Amino acid sequence: MQFSITTITAALATFHIANASWKITAFSNGACTLNAEDINSFSRELSSPESVPDCFTFGQDMPGTSCTEAYPATSTTGPCNSGPLNPKSILAEGNCVFYAEANCGGSEAGVTLPGTPTCVDNGADIMSYKCVIQLSAQQFKMTFKNMLRNSPLAGYGKAIREAPREVIFNPHLLLSSLVYAFGGFPVIWDQGASSVIPSLPGFQNHFKIISGSNADEIRVFVSIVYVGFGVGSALTFFINDRIGRLWSYRLYTLIYCIGTLMAIFSPNLNVLYAARVIQGLGLGPLTVTCPMSIVEIAPAEIRGLLAAWFTLLMGLGLFTAVFCTLGVYLHVPVGNLQFQIVWLTPMILMGLCMIATFFIQESPRWLFMAQRRQEAIDTLVKIRGLPLDNVHVEHEVRDIEDDINRTAEAVGNSSLWTIAKETFTIASNLRRVQQSLVCYALAQLSGANLITSYFVPILAIVGVGGDTAHSMFLSGMYGVSKFFFILIATFCFIDALGRRKSLFVGAGLQTVTHIYLAVYVRTSQKGPVSEAASNAAIAALFIHAFGYGVGLFILPYVFGSELWPNRIRSFGSALSQAFHWLFIYAMQYSMPSILSSFHQWGAFIFFGAWCAVAIVYTYLMIPEISGLSVEEIEDLFRGPWFNAHRRTKQMVVQGVIENGKEDFGNDVDDKMKDYETNEKDVSRVA
């Protein structure tokens, strides 16, 4: 609902309803906005349930109900006059928004607000209300109930209810998305399995490994797969658009299966290491191809939810791999079959997925890119379950073709060398490269993935591992907790705080837990420690996982695909992904050296220091770019690096002021809604 600016004649400082005091916190859409905390308190303070306005309960019954109907206008008196205000309302981000019709005679009749003009005279002083634009994004406080209502899951539920049933429950769409999502399962299965497979007696006997808890002995086995990840993900730049999403999926799955078979029948460590690289050449590209394919086939209403399936199956792969290894350790006789079962399980699953690809749909977007328009339209009709003449299908066809044309126009006939040159020689593009690579690096320097990959040796260092079965069990529970922490953070916690605040909280928790672990390990090296301190060390590892889930885990995905302009988007994404995996390799390989060089306890200080650096870096250099135009994003990357985080808010205010008084209310509402929404949004795919 929108109001004309000329109907607004009063801005209220304080008014009283049923003995409840109300404080104005924002000026939005030409209306005085009450913050949600006061509204919730007001609902509790009313003595009679019959008099509680529905719109005050965060607007859950707002459609068809106004505050005027639910609460008598004659009971409301404002400071600008001695008579009733005749309140009316709309819902703005959980707030009841009031305005008065012709009750305020002018500025002289108003009540002074600190740092703001007095009662507004027919909107004449609206342009002076700069401070309230910032307040609306900063001072709105969500209750837990309201947080859940505004969570992504609630949004997906609403989208599912409102979208055509044929679109949401389309078997072609759901099966295709599920098969693509399973591409993430072996990726993290490998990380989970590689952390505990060296503890299997069969693996140790066959490959002459003395101990799975010795980080130096397993460093190459754990890390070398990421060389293949990096090279493979870079090669997707040349392959995916040439052969399509389905054939790319089949190719990468086949490469992974070949590498796995080599690992299963490896006669020695050298062949095993070569097999690990080949496995990575298949797994790395799947992390690029599968999320891309899901996004390209999914309808807008549930695109984020379907894309989250990939993350979900990655998380499932982590702890199921560990518990599979634990089951093998407990129930399979010592021999090669122990480690072969662990590698064979995901390979069989991916083999079935490769067969299933012959029964699912290709990306309509890629078919349009390949100049196979009729096939693309037929595929789109099939995965939407709607006829060609349906307005949803027609609109989507138009959007896809327009986007492809814009991208083609931007790239033109440019060679790879030209695009690479522009990426590294144009200052704003170079800043994008720096921002992307540093974010990926800081996430790994926090030590979270290193703890996952070297969890058994870490338990030995902390001195709480126990026997092999107990260490494997703790490793599996760590994977379970990490999985649920990331889900909770992604769908609830981050939306309550916003991305930047979540980063601060998460990195802060990681810093504190690293410091505790450092002190604990140093103390244990000097002598015995109490059982309570040992239990606290285990708890610190799990709290660290939560901190990573709400903090630095999301740092590389703050920008998403919007970071790169169309002309260099494919190259920039491939570059950042290749760096991501190669940097993981470097960190995984270096972990034993870090532990020994810093006498073990110092390694936690090292990681904690990088978490502190990440907090400072986030505060200074991480702007919010979602919802901004290409030109506005370009301006962000041209300004000084040390105050990038401030320029997004300045753009919001500047954009509103420049649009003039007539559209002031609408622009404030739209821009601040975008700003708050984007501040709490996060890429769901890791």
UniProtKB/TrEMBL annotation:
Give UniProt keywords alphabetically. Membrane, Signal, Transmembrane, Transmembrane helix
**What's the protein's topology in the membrane?**
Multi-pass membrane protein
Q: Does the keyword ATP-binding apply?
A: no
Q: Where is this region: Disordered?
A: 664-686
A molecular function (GO) held by this record is:
carbohydrate:proton symporter activity
Compartments annotated for it: namely: Membrane
One annotated Gene Ontology cellular component of this protein: membrane
Where, by residue number, does the polypeptide cross the bilayer?
A: 220-239, 251-267, 273-294, 306-329, 341-360, 437-464, 476-496, 503-521, 533-559, 571-589, 601-620
Q: Which interval of the chain is the signal sequence? A: 1-20
- Highest taxon of the source? Eukaryota
Q: Report the InterPro entries cross-referenced here.
A: MFS_dom, MFS_sugar_transport-like, MFS_Sugar_Transporters, Sugar_transporter_CS
Q: Which residues form the Major facilitator superfamily (MFS) profile domain?
A: 176-626
Question: Per the record's keyword annotation, is Transmembrane included, yes or no?
Answer: yes
Q: What is this protein called?
A: Quinate permease
Species of origin: Fusarium oxysporum f. sp. rapae
